[in-house]
Write a structure and sequence with these properties.
- The complex is a heterodimer of chains A (250) and B (550).
- With 250 residues, chain A is α/β, with parallel strands linked by helices.
- Chain A folds into two domains: 165 residues, Rossmann fold, CATH 3.40.50.300; 65 residues, no CATH class.
- Chain A contains nine helices and ten strands.
- Chain A has a six-stranded mixed β-sheet, with helices on both faces.
- In chain A, strand 7, helix 6 and strand 8 form a beta-alpha-beta unit.
- The longest helix of chain A has 18 residues.
- The radius of gyration of chain A is 18 Å and the shape is globular.
- Chain B is 61% helix and 8% strand.
- In chain B, helix 2 runs antiparallel to helix 16.
- Chain B is elongated, with a radius of gyration of 27 Å.
- Classes of the chains: A alpha/beta (250), B mainly alpha (550).
- Chains A and B meet through helix 2 and helix 3 of A and helix 20, helix 21 and helix 24 of B.
Chain lengths: 250, 550
């Protein structure tokens, strides 16, 4: 298992588009080895925060420190290879097969073919993706299968941090529930830092150790689900929890 | 048709009457092969890592190269090339010279209908052609730019520094003439050019060359006080049809044109003696072998006005210059030879191969240059806008004007046509490459970046394959347009399917025009079909599946 030691910190990091803040100056430390869920309604800044961490956008103010170092064009390629990133619709390249997508980066950096093959087999087992599906193109896969392939692609190089941006957002409820169960098992076996963006409190409560609730570009409260439920920092926290019907089942 | 391109370089002596631009074709092919080999060295390592898309593009490049190589070299080195200008009489005289030289034991090629005076003179000066028929008036006014009439001796002296000689008159004087319909002239009582002063409202359309010539419309209008008339430009090949259809009333003509009698026109009397003498002669390289020259000289003084008019009429009636030339020699064997010399399928094959060669080479280079330009343009910014603006602006340059710019630089050679076609091919390729890249969804871009792929790998592994459909569509558009545009190559004697189109225009013969136009249209469809098939190999399977599903 990879070393779970890579730290992720935001120091007063903010992101503006024009004059408007997508993310207000925010300070946040992600606990290594834990699963952190960033949650909140659409436009609350949770995806912006995630994209700052992997350097897809740069902070307008403050800084993002990964492994203690700010992200720069020089450090970025290495940092990105040590992170895995999955987006809502998978972001699979339609011109490559499942295997082509998963192994793209490993082959690009010249990994040994046998090692790639072994890793593919392990990942198929981990994500419960049928090996014969590796030769299929994304257009030939179901939504759930695509997300499994996308997860395999993110995990291929054994990243130290896994970033998931609403990975189950586009799936129907049955597939979603089944993938949630699988994800929990995968996270348990990986035992590494995971940052998960979701708008579903049930999903966050089920998968995450720590929940970061956001609103209007700010962090409203950070803690475990019980903290949010019993010691809300703001009436909005209770309001948000109550709005999530699935919580009734927890 | 007897004008001089103002953009041509000033005259300079050049050697050799036998060398011609076809000699340069193999070296041009060689250059294309070298460029391709170099490209493949660069491309193949990329494509190995690139998967199907990369191999696909390599396959396209290989296909284009094969297309270019499939075109055989056109000429042996010791061929004498006779040139002619883009009108019936010049074609016929060119054919007569060809037969005379062939009978003297030479291998002769007749390059028909080479643009205007400036272009064909340039070809003679540089040795691209060895002989062509010309008129003393044009030599004095347009080539030597003499303010005063020159004697034949003075002309010969002035031409010698260019390595060019001039035969004596072939026997007839083909001066410019102003013509109109006989019935209208009688009705209005017009007999002389001076009579036109009272009829400034008549619709006058002149060949574009006559409009601009030093001895053309402007000085004529000044001499005859006709400046109130407002002439429009018209292609000479269309003027007779326009006169017959009463769409125009007056045009310029050559006094031996068969169309004058055929259309019942009258030549208005040049009562103020404006037009200089236009005695027909051959201009030739001084390095021409003596027995070739003596064969040419045998034609001197043998064609009078009546005979030339008859030959022109015969050429237009039979739609065959060779036949008309053969009847000059009064030899049925020649007539037979002219008929069997090149059957239509043979000519069609040679035109088509040449056409494909021009299209293939120009397209190959447009792909090599256009895709990188499109990549830069896709990034936007000032440079991106500049690239799109420049390739867009090129499209607005009329093809003839573009050729006129290129000929002084690249000479009378297929290279000029290839460069022109290359430039016209750029816009669809550059624009489609840029658009295809810009249209890649943000999620895929970010996924590529988040994987940690270098920007080069993002381009070759992700962006270009994803944009392949759009890029190929651009190449396809260029190829189809190119097949149509390549007909202009015939204007500078570079051959192709434009050859029959241009000679058909001169003959006012729709059949001859269609002999080139229909194959060109069919070729365009075939090229389109071939590219549609190619799509199956070049567009990654996953992309086609995705498109089918959506």
């Amino acid at each position: 298992m990879p070393d779970a030691g890579m730290t992720v910190r935001l120091k007063s990091a903010a992101r503006r588009y024009g004059g408007a803040y997508a993310l207000q100056p925010t300070t946040l430390t992600i606990t290594p080895g834990q699963i952190t869920a960033l949650i909140g309604p659409s436009g609350c800044g949770k995806s912006t925060l995630l994209r700052l961490i992997i350097g897809l956008i740069t902070p307008s103010e403050g800084e993002v420190l990964v492994d203690g170092k700010p992200l720069t064009p020089t450090t970025l390629p290495d940092i990105r290879r040590r992170m895995g990133y999955v987006i809502q619709d998978g972001g699979l390249f339609p011109h490559l097969t499942a295997e082509g997508n998963v192994a793209l980066m490993a082959r690009q950096i010249g990994q040994d073919a046998t090692a790639v093959r072994n890793r593919l087999r392990d990942l198929c087992a981990l994500t419960r993706f049928p090996e014969e599906g590796l030769t299929r193109y994304p257009a030939e896969l179901s939504g759930g299968q695509r997300q499994r392939v996308s997860l395999m692609r993110a995990l291929m190089l054994q990243p130290e941090v896994l970033l998931l941006d609403e990975p189950l957002g586009a799936l129907d409820p049955m597939v979603r529930a089944s993938l949630q169960t699988d994800l929990k098992e995968i996270f348990r076996r990986l035992n590494q830092t995971v940052i998960l963006v979701t708008h579903d409190m049930g999903e966050a409560g089920y998968l995450a150790d720590t929940i970061v609730l956001m609103r209007d570009g700010r962090i409203v409260q950070q803690g475990i689900l019980a903290d949010l439920r019993h010691r809300p920092a703001d009436p909005y926290v209770t309001e948000f929890l109550n709005a999530q019907r699935s919580l009734v089942q927890l | 048709m007897r004008g001089r391109c103002p953009l041509l370089p000033s005259p300079s002596p050049a050697d050799g009457g036998r060398g011609n631009w076809y000699d340069k074709v193999p070296s041009c092919r060689g250059a294309a092969c070298c460029a391709l080999a170099a490209l493949q060295r660069l491309w193949l390592p990329l494509s190995r890592r690139c998967g199907r898309g990369g191999w696909g593009v390599t396959a396209l490049l290989v296909l284009l190269t094969l297309l270019c190589l499939a075109t055989p070299p056109i000429h042996a080195d010791d061929t004498l090339v006779v040139g002619s200008k883009k009108f019936t009489e010049s074609y016929v005289l060119g054919e007569i010279a060809r037969k005379a030289l062939t009978d003297a034991g030479f291998t002769v090629e007749h390059r028909q209908g080479i643009g205007a005076t400036g272009i064909v003179w340039e070809a003679l000066k540089t040795g691209a052609i060895a002989v062509y028929p010309e008129y003393t008036g044009t030599i004095g006014e347009e080539i030597l730019k003499s303010k005063t009439p020159l004697s034949a001796d003075a002309m010969q002296k002035a031409l010698a520094p260019f390595g060019v000689g001039m035969t004596n008159s072939l026997g007839f004087d083909d001066t410019y003439a102003i013509v109109m319909r006989r019935d209208q002239a009688q009705q209005l009582g017009i007999h002389t050019i001076t009579d036109l002063q009272k009829h400034a409202d008549l619709r006058i359309s002149l060949s574009n060359e006559f409009l601009k010539r030093k001895d053309g419309w402007e000085p004529l209008a000044t001499r005859y006080s006709l400046t109130a008339m407002e002439p429009k430009g018209i292609e000479h090949g269309l003027a007779y049809a326009a006169l017959s259809a009463k769409q125009i009333d007056i045009t310029d003509a050559y006094s031996t044109d068969a169309g004058i009698a055929k259309n019942d026109l009258v030549v208005l009397d040049d009562d103020r003696h404006f037009f200089p003498e236009y005695k027909a002669v051959f201009l030739y390289r001084l390095s021409l072998p003596p027995n070739a020259l003596s064969a040419l000289r045998k034609i001197e003084g043998t064609i009078d006005d009546t005979k030339m008019t008859r030959l022109n009429a015969e050429a237009e009636k039979t739609k065959d210059y060779g036949l008309a030339a053969a009847s000059y020699f009064g030899d049925t064997a020649h007539t037979q030879a002219a008929k069997s010399a090149a059957s239509y399928p043979e000519k069609l094959t040679s035109w088509t191969l040449r056409h494909l060669y021009l299209v293939g080479i120009s397209l190959l280079f447009a792909v090599i240059v256009g895709i990188p330009l499109g990549i830069v343009a896709s990034r936007g910014g000032a440079l991106g806008s500049l690239i799109l603006a420049v390739v867009g602006a090129i499209q607005t340059i009329p093809s003839l004007a573009l050729l006129a710019f290129l000929v002084p630089v690249l000479g009378i050679s297929p290279n000029s046509a290839i460069v022109a076609l290359f430039l016209y091919s750029l816009l669809p390729i550059v624009r489609n490459t840029a658009t295809g890249l810009q249209d890649i969804p943000i999620g895929l871009r970010e996924s590529a970046a988040a994987l940690g792929l270098s920007s080069g790998a993002q381009l070759t592994k992700v962006y270009l394959p994803l944009a392949s459909r759009s890029i190929l569509a651009g190449i396809k558009t260029s190829a189809v347009i190119n097949v149509g545009t390549a007909t202009i190559a015939a204007l500078i004697g570079a051959g192709g399917l434009g050859e029959p189109i241009i000679s058909g225009l001169s003959l006012n013969d729709n059949r001859t025009i269609l002999e080139g136009a229909i194959p060109a249209a069919v070729l365009a469809l075939l090229v389109q079909g071939a590219f549609d098939l190619l799509d199956r190999f070049l567009i990654p399977r996953g992309l086609r599946l995705a498109a089918d599903r959506s």
